[in-house]
Amino acid sequence: MKVKAYGKINLLLDIIGRRDDGYHMLNTVMQTVSVYDTLELSIDKNAPEGTEIICDKEGFPLDSSNLIWKAADVFKEQTGITYGGKLIVKVEKNLPSQAGMGGGSADCAAMLKAMNTFFCTLKDEDELCEMGTKLGADVPFCIKGGTRLCQGIGEITNKLPSPDCAFVIIKPDVSISTPEAYKRYDLMKSPPRSHLDYFLKALASGNIFSTSIYLFNVFEAVMDMPEIEQAKQELKEAGALNTLMTGSGSAVFGVFEKECYAEEAAAKLAGKYSYCKSCVPVNGGYELMWVNR
Predict the structure, then answer these.
(1) Integer CA distances (angstroms), 254 to 173, 209, 212, 272, in order
(2) In total, how many domains does the chain have?
(3) Which of 4, 8, 113, 277 is catalytic?
(4) What is residue 293's predicted lDDT score, i.e. its pLDDT?
(5) Calpha distance 257→239 (Å, rounded)
(6) Range(s) of the domain holding residue 20
(7) Catalytic site includes residue 138
(8) Of residues 14, 37, 107, 138, which has the active-site annotation?
(9) Residue 247 binned pLDDT confidence (cut-offs 50, 70, 90)
(10) Using 50, 70 and 90 to split pLDDT, how confident is the model at 224?
(11) Same domain for 58 and 6?
C-alpha cells in the first residue's frame, strides 16, 4: 500500500515558557497542506524479518536513525506483530529538509497510520498519537492533521476551523538548525509576543484578510537571513496577503485569497527557487491508498 504524508506550516508560533527538562512550551497553530511525501509499504516474504528503507534522495538516512524506521520499531513493540518477512518502505521524498514543514514528523505519522491498516491492528487515533509522542512532539499533530492549536511541547492538540485560502511555499537555499534557533531565542531579553486570541477570533470568522494580519512566528525575530526576507518580499510582490516563515525555518509561505492566485504567483517565482509550490489546506495528516491487497 501507499500513503501520502502531508507537510505542515505554522500559521502562528509562539514560545510561552520552558519546562524543567529543557523543553519549550508552545502556542502554535499548525496547518497541513497539500504537498506531501509518499511511502510505499510491502513485505518480502522470502527475506528474513527486518526493515529496509529505499529512497534515492541524497542525504536521506536509510538506517535506524530514520523516523520511519523508528516508527516501525515502536509500532511493532507496542502491538506485538510480526512482519512475516522483510518490511520494505520505498520513500518518495518531496518535502524539503530543514524547512520547518515537518517532513520527518509527517513521514513518521504516516508510517504509524499505514502500519495500523496494513497489519489490521485496529489501534484508534489516540493510541497512535501516544506512540507518536515517543517519537516527536509534532507527530501527534501530523497523525490528526487539519488546522489545530497545539500546546504543551506540541503534543496537546485542539481542532480549529480551516482557513479558506491557498498558499505558496518557498524554500530559500539556506538551512536553519532547530536547536540553534531555540538557543538564539533563549538569549533574547524581550521576545515579541503573538496575539493568539485575535488570531483565533479572526480564523473563526472565516475572514482570510483579518486572519492574515495576525500571522506570527517568534523565530523571525532571531533569524538574520536576507534570503528569508527576500523570499517574503517577493511573495508580497506576487500578491500575497501576508507572509511568514514556518517553524524554525527556512521555508516561508504567502497567503492568497484564491488557489488560482497562488498558482499564478508560484509560476512567476518557480524559476528563482529550487522549491516553490502552491498548495491548499487539507483536513487530514495522511491519505492511504491500497496498491495490491
Answers:
(1) 17, 12, 9, 16
(2) 2
(3) 8
(4) 59
(5) 9
(6) 2-160+283-289
(7) yes
(8) 138
(9) very high
(10) confident
(11) yes
